[in-house]
Amino acid sequence: MRFTITPQTKMSEIKTGDKVAFNFVQQGNLSLLQDIKVSQ
């Protein structure tokens, strides 16, 4: 699945291989990533 990040999405703490939890909103054909965090 492909996501588009919004200007308020903070990606700086995410590293390759991290497990994450995220929220997104579907707007037409776009999946807008609104929140993403490293999860345990």
TrEMBL record:
Protein name: Cation efflux system protein
Name of the encoding gene: cusF_2
